[in-house]
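Q: What does the assembled structure look like for these inputs?
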Amino acid sequence: MFDFTQITLVIGKVDPSTQSINMIGTGFLVSNDGKVVTARHVVGNETEGLCVLWPHIPNINAYQDVSDSSCKPVSAVIVDINPITDLCILSTDLRFSGSLPLLESLDNILVGEKIGMFGFPHCVMGRRVLTYQETEIGAKMLLETSGIKSKYATINIQTRPGQSGSLVFNVKTGAIIGLLIGTYAPSSGVIIAGINPHELNQTSYCISANHIKEML
Amino acid sequence: MIEIDNLSLDEWYTCLKLYQKNIIEQLVAKYGEERAAEEWLMARGPIQTATFGGVQTNKNESYWDRFKNEFDKLICGHPDYENEQKKFMYAGKPIGLSSVTALSTWLSPIICVSPAILVPAIILVLHTTSKMGIKAYCSTKHFAAN
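A:
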């Protein structure tokens, strides 16, 4: 199994009133000189206070102590945003000497083929557990923003807050084929306890990694 | 008064990354220049998508309105931008390709968006304004008192 523990990162934001770090989503390294990709909606519009957390475990089989709140933050700055695809590139001082997985288009994987995903479900609630999930590509889709169509895939799994920006890869080749963006949830006209009921019975989708590659 | 270089849209596009140029060209073909700039600034990824995680943002906030208001103030001689206007005039050169980064850096903290997202919108409104002529463009602008 490919282990992307060392390149999958928590995206954080410093709370200026307490100087503590709020975990706001997932991202992953896409260059040896510290560029990190995540979803634009994870970081919002302002660069101030953004950081990434240095990996806290050596490999995915290590026990993750959920009571351990220590972390090594590294400052991050927004260097590019594509509001059409909801992608964002951050620049950090992280340096990675290993070889990074290739970024490939969803063109290179078939519906029904296995994919793996590394991310931090529930990190927005203060829980830091790097989690590996495996599923299949359920469909390939063209989704539109302002009339511009981009490549996405439905993945046959439900996802949780904090997983936006997760690394999605082809389990056969290890190439990164996408980044988790969100889930299909049309407006239901009803909000119960702040939740649109359609978000509870969801299909998740990721955007094709070729849209990341074109930003680098 | 500040002047803007009389450049073609293709010349302004040289400030953009290739993927931005591809998107902006499609937006301009579909909506026209000013609306394309607005669509770019206000886009939030595909519709009917629930996102998981991230900072709280006001989804109704119009970055476009703020951007346009600040841009107009800068170009049309509003006192809020006196220093910036002087810098351009002392430089003795019209606003051109080399000014786009400075404009995005000035406007970014005022509009509360990263400079990275502003560049395509800036080149589109600069081109629109230069086509119309700054005098004609500014004659239609009326700023609320501070």
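The mean pLDDT of chain B is 86.
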